[in-house]
Structures are given as C-alpha cells and as structure tokens.
Design a protein that fits this description.
By secondary structure, this protein is mainly α. The chain has two helices and no strands. The chain is 93% helix and 0% strand. The termini are close together.
Length: 54
C-alpha cells in the first residue's frame, strides 16, 4: 500500500515539473525543475527502500 502511495506521489511531482518546464519555457524554469527533481530523488530512494522493507 505504501509503495502505491509513493508511486502516485512521484507521478504527481513529475507531472508538476513537466508543467513548470512547459509554462516557463525558460532556462530558469528548467534549472528550477532540475534542482527540484534532484532534491526529491533522495526521498524517492528512501521511500523505495521503505517500500521494499514494508
């Protein structure tokens, strides 16, 4: 159940990042999106490990 929850969260985050890239269509928007995705990655890894354990 937890794994499904994190999968949905990741999908929403990815969609939001794509949305920001398309809306801004600027270098700044792309850098912000990349920075946000890099910041989120450790959480995804931890959630993946938690999902495998539980």
């Amino acid at each position: 159940m937890k794994k499904v929850f994190w999968y949905i969260v990741n999908l929403i985050i990815s969609a939001a990042l794509l949305f920001f890239i398309f809306v801004h269509e600027s270098v700044l928007g792309i850098y912000i999106s990349l920075g946000a995705s890099l910041a989120i990655t450790p959480f995804q890894l931890r959630a993946y490990k938690d999902g495998r354990k539980g």
